[in-house]
Queue: 2 jobs
Job 1
Amino acid sequence: MGPLDTYLPYLLNRAGTRIATAFGEEVRPLGATLQIWRVLAALHERDGRRMGDLAQTTSIEMSTLTRLVDSMEKKDLVARRRDPEDARVVVLHAATAGRRLTQRLLPIAERYEKVALQGIGPKEAEQLKAALRRLYANMDGLANPRKGRG
Amino acid sequence: MGPLDTYLPYLLNRAGTRIATAFGEEVRPLGATLQIWRVLAALHERDGRRMGDLAQTTSIEMSTLTRLVDSMEKKDLVARRRDPEDARVVVLHAATAGRRLTQRLLPIAERYEKVALQGIGPKEAEQLKAALRRLYANMDGLANPRKGRG
DNA sequence: TCAAGATATTTGTAAATGCAAATAAATGAT
DNA sequence: ATCATTTATTTGCATTTACAAATATCTTGA
């Protein structure tokens, strides 16, 4: 067997953790976190999403998301509304401070993208992204996901 | 801005988390965890490492590692020894049950490698790994690492 | 309309994790 | 030999996070 850093799962998790931590520290001064960014980014892409949808697209667990949204509501980053069509559903909208914060986070996200990919070349970068999507999908059948089909 | 899953940090963290979780569940029946595997793999590569070295190569935080090693010692997976040269130093050795467990984990790690990389091709896989190492290194200067130069 | 079952979200609780302070031992200066 | 400084590891504590149970609402069928 080779050293630990020939193993893909290790490399992947290590890189993923570090970039997440680094990004998190970068945005802390703005009062944001990685998770907050994900929610705002998702709402920026499409506003008025339901909680379940958000949990799915941000990969944040539902119970975690609930508490996160609690705190984001207090800061006027987002607003919960009941869906009039179906009162079980809560839809989330970006609020004033939330939209402002999003505008400040976007350039940081772009910059991180660049820094992370230094010396990797645009073509390879696309391949990397494609591989990561593929890899995520490959894990679908295996363990963990209490999604799909229990 | 595009959807969240065009952002590298998101893709990376998402994939890294999922593969870690899946692997963790896979090895749980054997009484192992992802972290345990990392320590054992590191010791398999080179036995008798000091704690600081292990923390470095496994990307496990020192305080976390201490507690992890406590529990691994109880299971006879590893043994702590004081370095006679410098009594501040603790060196870690794989113990009997640890070596046995390592042998059982190795094929699982190999298999995970294969599953994760389904449809990705050996050449692209190598590029992916190289990119992940590079990317990890790229993050070095940025935030987070309380390493390097304080 | 009411009960039964399905779906969406929230709360309770315990485990994992990291930072900072504390401990232990070595090294160097007086 | 003793004190101050440095290095290595461990413990205290607060935060984060996930799983599971609880709650709320909707839908369907009698």
Note: The helical segments of chain B are 8-27, 34-45, 51-58, 62-74, 96-116, 122-138.
Job 2
Amino acid sequence: MGGADGLNTAASMTGPRLLTRAALPVDTAALARCLIGKLLVRALPEGVATGRIVETEAYVVGDAAGHAYRGETPRNRSLFLERGHAYVYVAYGRSDMLNVSSEEAGVGAGVLIRALEPLEGVPLMQSNRGVERVRELTRGPGRLCAALRIDRRLDGIDLCREGSLWLGDDAHASDDIGESVRIGISKDVDRALRFYVRSSPFVSGPTSLNR
DNA sequence: AGTGCGATTGACT
DNA sequence: GTCAATCGCACTA
């Protein structure tokens, strides 16, 4: 597609534009904030499911709550990939969690994707989740992975390449972004490293954290 | 080889 | 609001 085609209507066949690695800040907290409003695109045999990222958490370098804190292991090695790669793990034996690696290669840190606003492929997400209510589809890190059928087979993939799972850019810049402490951790509990869209009904967490 | 623990969710009072 | 399910993995021995 040529750059001369400036208009891009909703009816256009043109999908989301890839979010390039160069557009990602080389800093975990900055990346967590940057990813708010961006798109997550999942290509499945049945079709495409897309959501807008409305909640993230940063697990920064030297963070006792982060999985990379004690160094590289077989499970967390994807956190040490160059920024923009997927780190997927299973929490509590039942929920898959999606993170975006966030620093230079060899440095372990990441951004947890905690909630999406469903955009495209809602019926597919409903089918994957076994839930009808759109508001509950992708509200929470485990739920969004179930909705997009994300599991550890996607661990380590490059999210800055159009493939089975990738990040899309979006012009949606002017949302009011809130900050709070992170949810569900027991170490480094006081740091304000959670970011969310204040006006979004799709964010997770208690209302007390979403003001 | 055994143990303890979660970056959660869904069911229930 | 409370609470138990559930299992991969890191850690100890």
Note: The radius of gyration of chain A is 16 Å.
